[in-house]
Amino acid sequence: MGREQYTTTTEGTHIERPENQCVYKIGIYGWRKRCLYLFVLLLLIILVVNFALTIWILKVMWFFPTGMGHLQVTKDGLRLEGESEFLFPLYAKEICSRTDSPLLLQSTQNVTLNARNSEGEVTGRLKVGPQMVEVQSQQFQISSKDGKPLFTADDKEVVVGTGKLRVTGPEGALFEHSVETPLVTADPFPDLRLESPTRSLSMNAPRGIHIKALAGETEALSQEDIILHSSDGTLVLDAETLCLPKLVQGTQGPAGSSQGLYEICVCPDGKLFLSAAGMATTCQEHSHICL
Q1: Does pTM top 0.90 for this prediction?
Q2: Residues 6+ away with beta carbon under 8 Å from 265
Q3: Taking a C-beta distance cutoff of 8 angstroms, is the pair 257, 267 a contact?
Q4: Rounded to the nearest 5°, which phi and psi values hold at 203?
């Protein structure tokens, strides 16, 4: 540090002041200045690179004031255009498509929709797999566009609410247990067949059973017995011609006595047979057929 000198003078005396022997320099000089400039230049380069990367990310990700890429934020919620892939669960109150395009959900394994209660328990599940569609719920119902139930299934029963149930399979419909219906019909041209290949076929009704063929014939075939039983009424066979072609016939009497006529005889067990007609009944003569 320089040393200051003090000089005493009297009034009127002129004395020249000595020059300062030391000069103070203010600032950063030398290698410190060069390092500072280099650091500022490095910060400027990093700022420019970050700004360029930000612009590139915004352009690649399609950031806009209304959303990002195909995802747009509207007053009704989020709108997603095109195909999207979700790697984790998606939680939404409502998912719908545009009015002019369908909603498609697809997966390489299966698509599962779960409904949960407030406690997180699954109350309903729809699972679409590669081999089976599984619905787990207390009740399954299909309704028409006006809200009419068309098909309902639960633990107790299955209800078909349409006016007609049509089975188009070549093998028909297979029922392992009883079937309750007010009407069974066929198309105008194909035949209607009620068949039990290995067991018996039973038809019961509280009031009556009506079998009608408007443009064909009615045929009943059985390996064993066909029983027509009425507990409180009569059995009526109303037809213009009644034919029993395979009834057992009794021995015909003398030539010309029956004139080619026969009478139907009934055994005590209900068996029918034909007997050649005579002046009186001839059923007693051929009663050995009943044995």
Answers
A1: no
A2: 250, 272, 273, 274, 275, 281, 283, 286
A3: no
A4: -120, 120
